[in-house]
User: Fold these one by one.
Assistant:
Number 1:
Amino acid sequence: MTAISQPPMSTTLHPTRVARVVTLAFLLVNMVVVHAMFFLAGPPAYNVLGSIGRLLGLYLAFAMVVQLLLIARLPLLDRGFGMDHLTVWHRWTGFAIFWLAVLHPVVVLLGFATYSNVSFLSETVTLSRQMPVLLGMIAVAVMVVVVAFSVQAARKRLPYEVWHTVHLLLYAAILLAVLHQVYKGTSFTSNALTQIYWWGLWALAIGALLIGRLFLPLVRNARHRLRVAAVVPEPDNAVSVHITGRNLHLLPARAGQFFLWRFPGHNPWWQVNPFSLSAAPDGRSLRLTAKGVGTTSSGLRGLRAGTRVFAEGPYGALTASQRVRESTLLIAGGIGVTPIRALLEDPDLTDVVILYRVRDATKAVLIGELQNLAQARGARLHLLSGRTGPDNNPFAPANLATLVPDITERDVFICGPPPLTLAVLDTLRRLGVPKRQVHAELFRLAGG
């Protein structure tokens, strides 16, 4: 029998493509406008260093706007790229802000010192007596502290509460930077048009942040009044938490997505964890399943029915809306099975193969549900157990191609521990699976 390749699905309105076009257009247009503002500003700076410092200041301000939009968790970006990609961009944007925040005042002060023929330190002391300049210096100092505490080596040694509190200082730094711009910004105060553009850009970023991180979560939680309905122990020290509420059919959640969960009264407010939905939302209830590996996840077993739940989301791009082919391969590792199990319920996924990797088959979480769903849907389920080694590596290219011979014709959804996910991604690349057919998401949350 000759295998017939399936035609690719239409990707005209694919969320990733839309997000890429909008993001690229936003960055290009604004960078053009920023440079136009610089060259069309009033009288030139006192010397070359002053001009460079002014341009660095514009870059810094725009990078801060981009950072606010990244942590605002805009649905367009989240559904198009996934929060793991946004978190990586958040981190690199943060380091860019750090270096710009250091270089901008240093170059400006060097320019003034050269112009006035005084030492750098003397000029710094003189200008720090001006309130707008002092506000900018304090903002830079705060940014340096935040970045120092965000370096991986430092973060590993700090309690989450300390790191989170320090990270929140970034908002204070942004406020001080905005005040500094009000008094010292010259490139965007030369005429009414540039002022409207610049402050409109800041209003967009701050408005998106307040709506996405404060207003929308408060409104949704007030509307749905989520509470714990039941807590069910699962194999391998895992637990499923069933949650009910009002008007859950209005919650725009999809199989494969996750929420940031808080349990006020049971845990302190700062304890928040990203747990995926382990069942497709049905408009009546939600379910999360977590393995007890940390303080919050281990404490889920102690939840009582009726406990209030505060959820922020839904987030994540690991949904059926990402598919570009008719056939699907779902790959799960360990507790990463939770969004995969939910995706198995999505009717938009067809001709499904599931690979579930666990060390011990007797401790496979939700395996009974997977087997029942697979049977009901006519899907093929492979439970891959045992320690990984030379003689047992199902995700080696040859072995994976044997398990799923038509893998290049399928969308591949992956969720599992980072080592497993990265190994599978490498194998898919070697097998020639087109990148647009590969969908994976790692839970690496941005702070703020």
Note: Residues 255 and 350 are 14 Å apart (CA to CA).
Number 2:
Amino acid sequence: MPSGVNQMVDDAMARVETISVDDAKELVGKDGVTIVDIRDVRELWRDGKIPGAYHAPRGMLEFWIAEDSPYTKDVFQTGNRFVFYCAAGARSALATDTAMKLGLTNVCHIGGGFGAWKKAGNEIEAVEKK
């Protein structure tokens, strides 16, 4: 049993596929790929997001992925490859692990998250408050 959040993240990292920012950049806009931003909406408003990323807040992820949930989102039933990211990679590792437990098989996350994306100088899409 995990002894704390760091252990939980380490355990998730051992089970999930981590891809580089460069590999993620190659997947943006590709058919059959959904980039999923799990950060809080306030982070998106403040920092923007990867162009075209689908926003699925971490707190709703299980409910949006599970087919038996009244809140399930069709996007997660497409059979696409899902590439999750957060700010630095810890939340997205946990999210990817959770997605696998809920039956998604073609999933990974971006090592270093949005921070690494931004540091690499990649394009950022602004997100306006609604």
Note: Helices lie at 5-15, 21-27, 41-47, 61-65, 90-101, 113-119.
Number 3:
Amino acid sequence: MSLTLTPELIEQYQKTVEKESSSLLAMNACFKTDPLEMCVRRSKVLATNHVFSHKVESEGRPVTNQKSSGRCWIFACLNVMRLPFIKQQNLEEFEFSQSYLFFWDKIERCNYFLNKMVECVRRGEPVEGRLVSFLLHDPIPDGGQWDMVVNLVSRYGVMPKKCFPESYSAENTMRMNRILQSKLREYTRELRQVLDKDGDDAAVTETLTHQMSEIYRIVSICLGIPPQTFTWEYYDKAKAYHKVGPLTPLEFYNEHVKPVFNIEEKVCLVNDPRPDNTYGKVYTVDCLGNMVGGKQTIYNNQPVNILMDMASESIKNGEAVWFGCEVGKRFAGKLGIQDIDIHDYKSAFGVDVNVCLSKADRLIYGESLMTHAMIFTAVTLNDSGKAEKWRVENSWGEDRGEKGYLIMASNWFREFVFEIVVDKKYVPEEVLEVYNTDPITLPAWDPMGALAAAHS
């Protein structure tokens, strides 16, 4: 049985809408207004304030801006990392170079992709099959996951932004990405031809080596070549002069950053409530990564209340929290408010939106997935010690919310936060023990393999 949209049925729909005064009023408002802005509840805005019961000692300055790029996962990591570093160095403001890690991610990610294309051939995956087609759709995205930034920092270290500043293609990645996409698809065909011919490892390695030399040239032209060593000169809050270096970025991380922020001591917890993905187990996603020989992307799946408690505990102890979420839902962007009740869709459209399905059903039916990474810097706890609201440092500049800081209700956290990262000292032993089990592999197209990439 199927429904045909006959002229009579369309006329019935039209007459119904035209008889509804609320629909006509909403139609008039939408003529010149963003539908989401029209639905914002004034009462919720009036009840919102950036006052919190627990807050990290000092927040990072300046507010960062990823601009037209999908580097939020890198920005969020470096924004968390800079807080203890600023305190240690007694700085007024500071940024790590996001472009530095982005450069190495592009290089490593292209190499990872090409090696996966070789693996797919050896696994018998046809180029028209779902897996290879999915991977070829976007072979070099900007977005990433926590374990990917761990790979980059562990291998390449970090450096101050002043020593490797932004370039046009770091802030506006579309053109560079399209060049790389074209080359990676071309290289995939070339690799399959080499493998079809004789499958010789030496021939494959020779082909990959040449291909990556061309990738390195493209990325270097777009982003610049990071210095192998650098010297950092700066004034502290007391206006005293300091000089660090010359040293490599990895030496800078190991000697000056790692003592206050050891990225390998951080634990990534996720909330995936789908019935088939049991809590208390670890998962990974097929072909998801950014570095050959790097850390595997691992998800420790836990109930959302565990994530909220661990994030609260970290903030109570003065440590900010990296997290991944679906940023676009129930979000009043200009005001910087994330709250399930911020939009009154029912009054405007006669139906509710976003929360008619459960969090699990939204994942199952393609209505939800992680899109963006930010950091928590404050939380308000009620008399029972449970979180009520959160302060969020974003990486979209100062134009959103309170000079770049958003406010999130805990009802929004439960529905749209999928991932947090805290120091393992805040994680119960029984949760840590889950990492000792073998991960369950989800398919490459599973929504838990989504990459944090959203920009303003």
Note: The chain has a mean pLDDT of 97.
